[in-house]
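Bit of a strange request maybe. I'm writing a small parser for structure token strings and I need a real example to test against, not something I typed by hand. Could someone generate the tokens for this chain?
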Amino acid sequence: MSVGDIAGLIAAIAFVLLVGVLAVPLVKLGRVLDEARLSVKELTDHSVPILDETAATVASTNVQLTRVDTITTAAVSVSENVSALTSLFAATVGGPMVKVAAFSYAVRRAFGGLSGQGKSGR
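Reply from user aminoacidic:
Good idea to test on real output. This should exercise your parser:
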């Protein structure tokens, strides 16, 4: 064996050792990627039902909001009707009631003044 043969043999052995040393991290990286794939699959399997439930909840909420909108519209209509009725009552009954109250106050004041003149000396 010559020196060149020995150098070639040493280089081949070093290359085999280098390949062996590099193979260990590659095998570990493969395991990490397998675990990541399994984690993503499990996450996807659990996320799909949650998304389905969320879609059903949103649909139900939209139905309820439609009902609330209907109720609110009816409440606004009732409120407007009550306001109109109050205005009508105030216009038809309020004015005459004020006049009657003023008249009765004036009558009481007049009778009070007539009966009170002799007593108080006015």
